[in-house]
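Section handout, structural biology tutorial.
Before the tutorial, make sure you can parse a SMILES string by hand: atoms, branches in parentheses, ring closures as digits. In the record below the ligand is zinc ion, and the chain has 346 residues. In the tutorial you will relate the predicted structure tokens back to the input. Do not try to memorize them.
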Amino acid sequence: MILSDPVPLVPLPWFDGPWQSLATAIRGDRLGHALLMTGPAGIGKRQFADLLAAALLCERPTAAGLPCAQCADCHLLAAGNHPDLTRLVPDAESKSHEIKADAVRELCASQAMTTSRGRRAVFRIAPAEAMNRVAANGLLKTLEEPSASTLMLLVSETPSGLPATVRSRCQRLHLRLPSAAQALPWLRERLPQGLDPERLLAIAHGAPLRALELGSAELLAAREGCLKGLSDVAAGAADPLGVAQAWQSLDPALVLDWLAGWISDALRLAADAQVKHLTNPDHRDRLRGLAARVPPQPGHRYLQQVYAARAEALSTVNKQLLFEALLLRWAALTAGRAQAPNRTTT
Ligand SMILES: [Zn+2]
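Predicted structure of the complex:
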């Protein structure tokens, strides 16, 4: 399938060195017609390939050879729909995760056409090793007879998965894992509060983009766990003190934001079971269960207490006490209804 994601217009901080070499090659007209970018997963190889494409398609690159971010081409790139950049990836629905021969054939046919905006046509295939044998052979012909105005960018973590005939026709650019000193400030800026960048970078074997992904997944799992704890306490199925203990490992501001969102959704649902707008639409069913247990008036008072706790969260020294107090109140609030879980207020 063909991607239409926005194209980044600045290099990741750890690619400054490789970018300078590439910019020098562009200035000296030493860039070939096919480039194979290799390196470990999760360091930003695709972004780097896109940046190169952007620099070549930009009307007025900067002195450093970077895209200007101002011209019409840069606007098209940032919107993800520049007609002279085609990015081929495996079909999202394909079980084999292969790039099939048909897709490569179409790409090569479009390559034969002239560029739309006149400068150059750039084709990116990632991961290149996802091309099956027939697809890779199809590409070979194009690599053997390149057109003057096109650049083929192959991105690969395991170039050994590509036929030697394809590899030998590409210039090679190997991108390395950044140092922790390069990766950590970038990661720290992007991770949600409460997550430890050093630990995540270690789990991701030093690959910053992978660490960021792991961070989001970890946070999602923590959010699920918190909501389950809240539901279990309401159902009388969990001890509030035990749940408070489990929440302690998380950033209180974050937990209280979640809590406020869930309680207000439960109150909305209690007032109107079909309400359209929810802060957490992904948990409508579970929140409907909570709605049945929250009496409206005390529920609104409880929400105010959560907001007040949120305002104090930054200065809170004892998270355990904070969560215990809130969860004991929550248990008391929902206890009256815990015996009648099917009762609805509509
Ligand atoms: Zn530009």
